[in-house]
Amino acid sequence: MGLAKHNKSEELKEKISILPDTPGCYLYYDAAGTVIYVGKAKNLKRRVSSYFNRTHDSIRTNMLVRNIADMKYIVVPTEEDALNLENSLIKEYKPHYNVLLKDDKSYPWIVVTKEPYPRVFLTRTRLKDGSKYFGPYTNTAVAKAVLNLIRELYPVRTCRHAITPAYIAKGKGRLCLEFHLKNCMGCCTGRIGEAEYGEMIDHVKQILRGDTQELLDYLRGEMERLSMELRFEEAQVIKEKYMLIDRYQSKSVIVSQTLDDIDVFGVDDDTDQVYINYMHVRRGAIVRSITLEYKRRLDETVAQLLDYAIAEVAARFDIKYDEIVVPETPETPVAGATFTIPKRGDKMKLLDVSARNARQNKIDALKMMEKHAPEKRVERTLERMKMDFRLSELPRHIECFDNSNIQGTNPVASCVVFRNAKPAKRDYRHFNIKTVEGPDDFASMKEVLTRRYTRLMEEGEELPQLIVVDGGKGQLSAAVEALDDMGLRGTIAVVGIAKRLEEIYFPGDSVPLYIDKNSESLRIVQQLRDEAHRFGITHHRNRRSKGQIISELDGIKGIGEKTKEALLQRFKSVKRLREASIESISETTGQTRARIIYEALHSASPEPGA
Questions:
Q1: Burial of 56: CB neighbours in 10 Å, binned 0-12, 13-18, 19+
Q2: 3-state secondary structure of 301
């Protein structure tokens, strides 16, 4: 599809024709002058032209192109600059067709202020004031626990006074309760110097950076030195600090003893919703983790979404990357960083941990959504099934068929019905096979489908959007023949599910489809198949029991059809009837008939398998 076929203005065509072959960002506007899409490009001219010179596979991309009325662009030096600019423009304009970052929370940081006597506290506001910020902490409880540890270890001041040498010299400070509780060293009165206080703050920063091993080595040395000098009380104070830090370190999530300063991005790709987890590993321990949720708008690839996530994390946390572990290479290079796609070893394990975190965040988000809006889960499940089974509409009405004949006797079939992904048990149906001689599953399947849908059409009932047959290619072919004969081929979608291997067969396709074992679609189809099997087996057993009881009683004089039916209803099988006492049988038949039945059943040897 050329540019002219989109009926674009001559002015827009002219703009596109003179675009430079350089990195940059482009902005698309609709007729109302609203920014509807922001994109980045290594080569602006080639990238922008690609929107207009062909028909796209994505419906949403074609809709975007139809709505473009104007375009502007910004040239930047590198691809990475283009990515960062794109990220900023998307946040500013929130264009309709751009990928949507749904996680825009404000996470807490622990700040060490830039003052002669620094303070250490929790904040959600990150200022450019020269202070040192550590975090962010995705779990506020963890941040508070770290802060409590620091305050237990070191008497860092908590007051808000602007304590400077001039402030101390003027004697304005007054010792407060915190000093008497030994939670402060009396900074305001100069009882501790800046250098000594600064050394304490250095230890605090080590803890916040995750450098606890270096701090432990230092404290161990101090303990030994004080012990050698026979200063046992001071050594004991240091020992208590050592034990606190050691206990804190042991609670860290250790993923490797060899990895250091590595950034990891794990992905859980669930169609339109994509979750990307970021983890920073320092000295083998995970010291930071955050999950971003993206909603696709134009079928963005995982590589493109990794671009967004890497840029977002760098901007949000002021990170300079060195080595980045990813499941696949992002589109845009990062200056000074290398990408690693591991296949085995500690880095592969680390990537798996990150992907599991992303998946868990997805599960938590879905549970929260379903708690407040349970109908959304149904819609999501149906949308997934529509995609997996190549349907033209949502499968709100599904029917599943299963044949049951044990040792070739009493062939029956069952039909179970699901509406909105849930069993509709009052719509279940049993079928006794009437036209097929012997155990022929394929012919039985064709008979049952023909009877079922001929009747539904005659009665004007709605037809399902999807039929599932329990079996492989043979049963599926029989089902397709039945639909062909009724003129329903193409009106109702039909698939077959093979036993054990969970293979899904489509009409005319000899190669089965293997659906992800964690997929909601497969779970629903398995539930359908199991329910059809259970329902069919129950009916089959009832028929066999009825036949056995009636045949056993046929030769007993004075026992009519009503008595046989009553005994079948009460005892279910010949075995149970034979084991019953005369008194128990008499409750159904009366004493005289009960004695006749009891003696007849016990005078003959029981049949095998009865």
A1: middle
A2: coil
Residue type, 280: H
pTM recorded for the entire structure:
0.48
Sequence-ordered list of residues with C-beta below 8 angstroms from that of 228, at least 6 positions apart, any chain: none
pLDDT band at 419 (very low <50, low <70, confident <90, very high): very high
Residue 25 lies in a domain: yes
pLDDT band for position 352 (50/70/90)?
confident
- One domain, residues 116 and 228: yes
183 contact partners, CB below 8 Å, separation of at least 6? 151, 155, 158
Q: Which domain does 141 fall in, by range? A: 109-253
8 A C-beta contact, residue 267 and residue 292: no
pLDDT at 609 over 50: no
The pLDDT-based confidence of 482 (bands split at 50, 70, 90) is: very high
- The answer as to whether 377 is a domain residue is no
Rounded Cα–Cα distance for residues 59 and 47 (Å): 19
Mean pLDDT of 493-515: 79
Q: Long-range contact list for 138-147, CB < 8 A, 24+ apart? A: 138/107, 138/289, 138/290, 138/291, 140/108, 143/108, 143/109, 143/110, 146/110, 146/207, 146/208, 146/248, 147/110, 147/120, 147/121, 147/122
3-state SS string for 455-512: HHHHCCCCCCCEEEEECCHHHHHHHHHHHHHCCCECCEEEEEECCCCCEEECCCCCCC
Task: Give me the mean pLDDT over the 323-345 stretch.
Answer: 90
Residue given tokens 């329990």 in the structure block:
470
Question: Within the chain, how many helices (H) and strands (E) appear?
Answer: 20, 21
Q: How many domains does the chain have?
A: 5
- What's the one-letter identity of residue 591? Q
Which of 32, 66, 98 lies at the terminal end of a domain, its last residue? Answer: 98
39 shares a domain with 113? no
**432 three-class SS:** strand
**pLDDT at position 212, please?**
66
Rg (CA), the chain: 37
